[in-house]
């Protein structure tokens, strides 16, 4: 059951000019969260901006009941959020989403993320590593300036490949190219992905070709995050052409079996 | 309109809703008069307390809206549904019309029990970097506090034109908003978007209405309906 909470902001860290990590005290939400869940945050008591902002969970500190999320300042809402000070309260609803990462039955897992899509993959990698999985992580950025969380991901991976599109840092190219090379070598038996749509499409295709189970985390604009407004629809892969059927990212997702959705 | 359909609703959602001690009014949408009639025949057999015809959803490419724009369209579909529906019937109106009062009159003339207003205003947002509309459907329904002044004005205009009850809605997030709609002429109010930002919005609204009643020594909230005094 999701909970509505005014959670204390206990720590705030600016990772980049437009990238913030918030740590909030939310013991019940932490207890009920799984890798892949997200929260909805109301940034102001005023009605402008109006709707809550869906933000993925980066890290769950179960011992201390601390939930961490990282967000990029994109518009008015995230701008207001970024100015909150330590000690103030964050109006949060969570955990949300029934579709979470299911890694338990696999052994040699590949985790692939691009840009700001890497954030929800950290908790997954951490849990999988703690459960003695062989965690192969591939994270890609456009250039050196955008590289973030390298050390953090190194800690929770057996093997980390970091790429930049222009080769200004790490390996040059797209993360998926390196994943593809490793599939046989590392006996990859599952893929978990989050990132920009072109990357997700490529991962979806690769997983289908190699017949490897694949779970992808989708991002959508959401009004409610609770399955009510139906705004975050994604077409099912099995939809007949003339009568499309939909699932909702907030409720059935945000993590889907890559075979189930047409993206 | 995007939803799992009436059979699914009857089997899955209705039993859940019935577990609460409250009335259930079902919002019904179709893409032809026949579809509205078929749907309402089924709804008539269910354990629900009323139906609200949605003639006005702008979030789908075709459908509801076509009926909601003219006196004749609204009257025709309401009359046909009235023939098959014994339960209380409300008709929800689109604000995207020139003369809301005449549309509301069509609802009354067709024999409906009440009129609901307003639905969302048709809007558009453009991402100035991508130079493209933000919504996949290009345009979509604008709701929330931004539309409240339009809604209050329309409730007032409709209250001057019809004698059936008005269910007022559009941007209500607290008791003060609700009182405004009631003063304008709404017998009852609905909350939609407000629930998205705070699941307790309805409870807080009820408390806010009670506070207003205490402040002005009002015994019966019905006494304030339509009592706005125009300048």
Strand and helix map with partners:
The complex is a heterodimer of chains A (263) and B (231).
Chain A: E1 3-16, E2 19-25, H1 27-32, E3 38-42, E4 53-56, E5 59-61, E6 66-72, H2 76-82, E7 89-96, E8 108-114, H3 119-130, E9 134-141, H4 150-155, E10 159-164, E11 171-172, H5 175-185, E12 190-194, H6 197-210, E13 214-217, E14 233-236, E15 246-248, E16 255-257, E17 261-262
Parallel strand pairs in A: 8-9, 8-12, 9-10, 10-11, 12-13
Antiparallel strand pairs in A: 1-2, 1-7, 2-6, 3-4, 3-7, 5-6, 13-16, 14-15, 14-17
Chain B: H1 6-18, E1 25-28, H2 33-45, E2 50-54, H3 65-68, H4 71-84, E3 89-92, H5 100-109, E4 114-117, E5 121-123, E6 126-127, E7 132-133, E8 140-142, H6 148-159, E9 166-168, H7 175-184, E10 188-189, H8 194-197, H9 201-215
Parallel strand pairs in B: 1-2, 2-3, 3-4, 4-9, 9-10
Antiparallel strand pairs in B: 5-8, 6-7
Helix pairs in contact in B: 2-4, 4-5, 5-6, 6-7, 7-9
What is the number of helical segments of chain B per DSSP (H or I, 4+ residues)? 9
CATH evolutionary superfamily of chain B: Aldolase class I
Low-confidence parts of chain A lasting 5 or more residues at pLDDT below 50? none
Q: What is the topology, as strand order, of the major beta sheet of chain A?
A: 4-3-7-1-2-6-5
- Coarse shape of chain B: globular
What do the pLDDT scores of chain B average to?
Answer: 92
The CATH topology name of chain B reads TIM Barrel
């Amino acid at each position: 059951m999701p909970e509505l909470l005014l959670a204390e902001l206990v720590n705030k860290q600016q990772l980049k000019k437009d990238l913030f990590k918030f740590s909030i005290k939310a013991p019940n939400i932490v207890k009920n969260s799984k890798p892949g869940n997200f929260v909805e945050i109301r940034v102001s008591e005023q009605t402008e901006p109006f709707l809550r902002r869906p933000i993925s969970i980066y890290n769950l500190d179960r011992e201390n009941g601390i939930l961490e999320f990282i967000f990029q300042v994109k518009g008015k809402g995230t701008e207001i959020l970024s100015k909150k000070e330590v000690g103030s309260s964050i109006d949060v609803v969570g955990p949300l989403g029934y579709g979470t990462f299911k890694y338990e039955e696999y052994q040699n897992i590949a985790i692939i993320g691009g840009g700001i899509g890497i954030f929800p993959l950290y908790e997954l990698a951490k849990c999988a590593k703690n459960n003695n999985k062989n965690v192969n992580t591939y994270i890609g950025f456009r250039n050196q300036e955008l590289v973030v969380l390298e050390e953090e991901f190194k800690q929770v991976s057996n093997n980390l490949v970091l790429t930049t599109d222009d080769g200004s840092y790490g390996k040059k190219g797209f993360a998926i190219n390196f994943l593809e090379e490793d599939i046989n070598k590392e006996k990859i038996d599952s893929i978990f992905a989050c990132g920009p749509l072109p990357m997700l499409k490529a991962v979806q295709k690769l997983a289908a070709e190699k017949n490897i189970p694949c779970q992808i985390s989708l991002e959508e604009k959401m009004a409610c995050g609770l399955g009510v407004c139906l705004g975050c629809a994604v077409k099912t892969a099995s939809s007949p052409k003339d009568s499309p059927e939909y699932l909702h990212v907030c409720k059935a997702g945000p993590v889907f079996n890559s075979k189930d959705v047409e993206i | 309109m995007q939803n799992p359909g009436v059979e699914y609703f009857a089997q899955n959602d209705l039993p859940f809703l019935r577990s609460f001690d409250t009335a259930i009014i079902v919002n019904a949408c179709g893409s032809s008069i026949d579809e509205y009639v078929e749907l309402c025949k089924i709804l008539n057999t269910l354990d629900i307390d009323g139906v609200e015809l949605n003639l006005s959803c702008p979030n789908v490419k075709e459908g509801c809206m076509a009926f909601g724009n003219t006196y004749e369209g609204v009257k025709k579909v309401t009359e046909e549904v009235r023939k098959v529906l014994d339960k209380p019937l409300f008709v929800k109106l689109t604000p995207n019309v020139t003369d809301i009062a005449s549309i509301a009159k069509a609802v009354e003339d067709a024999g409906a029990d009440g009129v609901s207003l307003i639905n969302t205003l048709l809007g558009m947002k453009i991402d100035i970097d991508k130079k493209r509309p933000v919504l996949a459907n290009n345009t979509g329904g604008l709701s929330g506090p931004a539309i409240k002044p339009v809604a209050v004005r329309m409730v007032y205009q409709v209250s001057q034109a019809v004698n059936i009850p008005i269910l007022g809605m559009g941007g209500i997030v607290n008791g003060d908003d609700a009182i405004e709609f009631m003063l304008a002429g709404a017998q009852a109010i609905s909350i939609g978007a407000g629930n998205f930002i705070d699941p307790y919005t309805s409870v807080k609204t009820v408390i806010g209405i009670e506070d207003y009643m205490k402040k002005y020594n009002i015994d019966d909230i019905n006494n304030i309906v339509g009592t706005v005094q125009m300048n």
